[in-house]
Write a structure and sequence with these properties.
The chain is of the alpha/beta class. The protein has 2 domains: 360 residues, P-loop containing nucleotide triphosphate hydrolases (Rossmann fold); 187 residues, P-loop containing nucleotide triphosphate hydrolases (Rossmann fold, 3-Layer(aba) Sandwich), CATH 3.40.50.300. 43% of the residues lie in helices and 12% in strands. An 11-stranded mixed beta sheet has the order 1-2-11-3-10-9-4-8-6-7-5. A 7-stranded mixed beta sheet has the order 14-15-13-16-17-12-18, with helices on both faces. One of its GO terms (molecular function) is U3 snoRNA binding.
Length: 723
């Protein structure tokens, strides 16, 4: 993996110095957003003869049938060598890493020209040299709080940050297992509360929330109801006018500073609701933290010379407090817009936002870029809206009535970035130009749309988690007399709150939540089980055969599945009568392995992966539709980023259950796209093991999953098409 990361980083550093890389990457972007995809979409709607004609023309121009079959696959050949050298786990991440290098999924700015940072407003936004503005009302609020010490101590921010852990408590958290308890909430459903330090306290859902009791910092008390109005319905209770039921329960947990995992985020339905809720929490935290520093600045200024007071420990070792990980620039744009809306009390009191025009230019999108004739599912449109560049990072500084975009990281309060944006600045072991000290004092980590990182490169997320809340290598000009003891003791990770939002349950996402989150307050995970499963959305009459394979442990599943497939499943499909067989492969590593085996056995097949060129995709689809190729190997990441309809499927094999459960019904329903498919004998075979319980439940429902995992026999299900 070390060679992999160094190769990756050197490629990235080259791309930053060579301007040509930008144009190359923009060509890759075009496959998602501009005319080439439009042409492909038009091709789908053309008659078979027209489609064949176009594909033949492409074949003549590109070369022979053989080169067409391997179209765009030079990178694949490199992966074959890597596959043979690495361990199972390393192979998978390496293949994904290299897929990112030429991936049609990604967006231009891997070849960013030069990063802009705003150095002009440094003194204006400095926490060290500014004081609380009297006229802002914040100073009065601080005085009011100090007179009522009881009210002040009840503030969740103060309770969390002022708690002084003892050595034995830290040792407990490092060694003892967590205790957990269950609770059911009206909107979130089944919750699991877990903690190490004390017997797990089960939080009760607030049926109503009074904004004044949430300890929101000014001006959020007045701006939040207006900003959130778009999500509220007339059904909202008059006593609770500012939160939707989902937001109320999520914010109730966030405001206690527990870690939170919510795996039911949906870009179509609740995605923006959730984004607004965590933006409110993050901004509330930053405003309180900064107000405390500015207030203490004034007290220190007014105190008598020579007095040494240890009461002013109110900062971390570095300034950034909140890190927000989002997949695309569009997400960062929306977050900043929410921040601005929350800080603007009314139209007359606009806040000053530096570099706003540049930000809109770099993070916004041109509506005319998107061809009007693209037909994609609604969830695809929601996920890939706006600017979908996945390589970015931006610092945001907030001070009273002003916001500074593109602040240097060490002068920022909030950092908004993609996993790739973080990876390229964190760098790898041995690199001279790398930096992660700015992550040392992160107090709130938000990872939104975590499922998309499984389709980008999960290794970047793991790399980030390994470098967060470490002691900085340099002091970066910090005043150690103001640094909290928790930071000096290197206990920052025990105070960090992690908010993790995903569209699905996945072992890799669960692992980050369970192994990289150490919050002393504890954790809350939403653990609802699917009742029906996506199989109920299959509209074609189709027998589904679920074939169970037995693996000794999780690490042996990859090899066991491959052996099971070539020994038990593939022989049944070698006969010419079983033509038009699509093999759906979620893992890129498995795809490379299968492709190599099919070539070795000289099987009549074609293949499409996430970086097969457009001409190669057209040829593969035509060969498969006409029956010139018996098998089509098809990767999940290609489907995620393209969502083409593949015509001509008569036999379907899920080499592994899909990551997104709705892809199961989507792929099955592609069979109805074949005109002569009514009288055909269609089949669907699914390979699964006991380690696929979560994915299986999402496809067939929890009841069937329990039966299937208890029984070691193959399971036959028949969907009538009347669902």
């Amino acid at each position: 993996l070390q060679s992999e990361t160094s190769d990756k980083s050197s490629a990235e550093s080259d791309s930053e110095t060579e301007v040509e890389q930008v144009s190359v990457y923009r060509k890759l972007l075009a496959t998602l957003k501009t005319s080439p995809e439009s042409e492909s979409e038009e091709e789908e709607d053309e008659s078979d003869s027209e489609e064949a004609g176009e594909s033949e023309t492409e074949m003549d121009s590109e070369g022979s049938q053989e080169t067409g079959e391997a179209g765009g696959g030079e990178e694949d050949k490199n992966d074959v060598l890597d596959q043979e050298e690495a361990t199972d786990t390393a192979e998978q991440t390496l293949a994904q890493e290299q897929a990112d290098g030429g991936d049609t999924s990604c967006d231009p700015s891997h070849g960013v020209i030069e990063e802009f940072t705003d150095v002009k407003h440094e003194s204006e936004f400095s926490l060290e040299t500014n004081f609380m503005e009297e006229e802002s009302g914040d100073c009065n609020a601080d005085k009011r709080e100090s007179t009522s010490s009881q009210a002040f101590s009840e503030d969740p921010f103060k309770q969390h940050m002022d708690k002084e852990l003892e050595e034995k408590e830290v040792e407990k958290m490092s060694t003892l297992p967590k205790t957990s308890s269950q609770s059911k909430w009206p909107r979130l459903g089944q919750l699991t509360f877990s903690s190490t330090l004390e017997k797990c306290k089960t939080l009760k859902a607030d049926k109503e929330v009074d904004v004044k009791q949430l300890y929101l910092h000014k001006p959020l008390e007045s701006t939040w109801p207006k900003v959130n109005k778009q999500f509220l319905s007339s059904a909202n209770k008059p006593s609770d006018p500012s939160f939707t039921p989902l937001q109320r329960e999520l914010f109730c947990i966030m405001n206690t500073y527990r870690d939170l995992f919510y795996p039911e985020r949906n870009a179509l339905t609740n995605g923006e609701e959730i984004r607004h809720a965590y933006c409110l929490h993050a901004l509330n935290h930053v405003l309180k933290a900064n107000a405390q520093v500015l207030s203490n600045n004034a007290k220190r200024r007014d105190q008598k010379p020579g007095t040494d007071n240890d009461d002013y420990r109110d900062q971390g070792l570095t300034r950034p407090k909140v890190l927000m990980i989002v997949p695309f620039r569009e997400c960062a744009l929306r977050i900043v817009h929410i921040f601005i809306s929350l800080l603007e009390v009314n139209d007359k009191r606009k806040i000053d936002v530096s570099n706003k025009k540049r930000f809109k230019g770099e993070f916004g999108s041109d509506p005319e870029e998107k061809p009007p004739n693209l037909k994609r599912p609604e969830d695809y449109e929601a996920v890939f809206a706006g600017n979908i560049d996945d390589h970015f990072r931006i610092g945001v500084a907030i001070l009273q009535k002003s916001m500074r975009l593109y602040a240097p990281f060490y002068s920022s309060d909030i950092i908004i970035a993609s996993p790739l944006g973080m990876r390229t600045i964190i760098g790898a072991e041995g690199e001279k130009k790398r930096d992660f000290d700015f992550l040392s004092s992160i107090e709130i980590l938000v990872i939104d749309q975590a499922d998309i990182y499984l389709m980008q490169n999960w290794e970047h997320v793991l790399h980030l988690m390994k470098h967060i809340n470490l002691l900085p290598r340099d002091s970066h000009g910090v005043d150690f007399s103001r640094v909290r003891m928790l930071n000096l003791n290197n206990w920052s990770k025990y105070y960090r709150q992690t908010l993790l939002f995903s569209a699905l349950q996945d072992p890799q996402i669960n692992s980050v939540f369970n192994k990289h989150c150490f919050n002393y307050v504890g954790q809350v995970a939403v653990r609802n089980v699917p009742l029906s499963g996506s199989i109920s959305h299959v509209v074609v009459q189709l027998p589904h055969v679920f074939r169970r394979l037995e693996a000794e442990n999780v690490t042996s599943v990859i090899d066991t599945r491959f052996q099971f497939f070539i020994d038990k499943v593939l022989p049944e499909y070698r006969d010419a009568i079983m033509s038009h067989t699509l093999i759906y492969v979620p893992s890129y590593f498995d795809y490379v392995r299968l492709r190599n085996y099919f070539k070795k056995e000289e099987l009549n097949f074609t293949h499409i992966c996430e970086y097969t060129k457009k001409a190669g995709v057209c040829r593969a689809r035509r060969f498969f539709l006409k029956g010139e190729k018996q098998f089509l190997l098809f990767t999940e990441r290609f489907h995620f980023y393209k969502r083409y309809t593949i015509k001509g499927i008569r036999n379907l094999i899920f080499y592994e259950l899909p990551t997104y459960s709705h892809f199961y019904s989507e792929i099955c329903n592609m069979m109805k796209a074949t005109d002569n498919g009514v009288d055909a004998t269609w089949t669907c075979t699914v390979l699964y093991s006991k380690y696929d319980a979560q994915k299986l439940a999402a496809v067939v429902g929890i009841d069937r999953t329990a039966q299937m995992l208890q029984s070691k026999k193959n399971v036959h299900l028949f969907v009538t098409g009347e669902n």
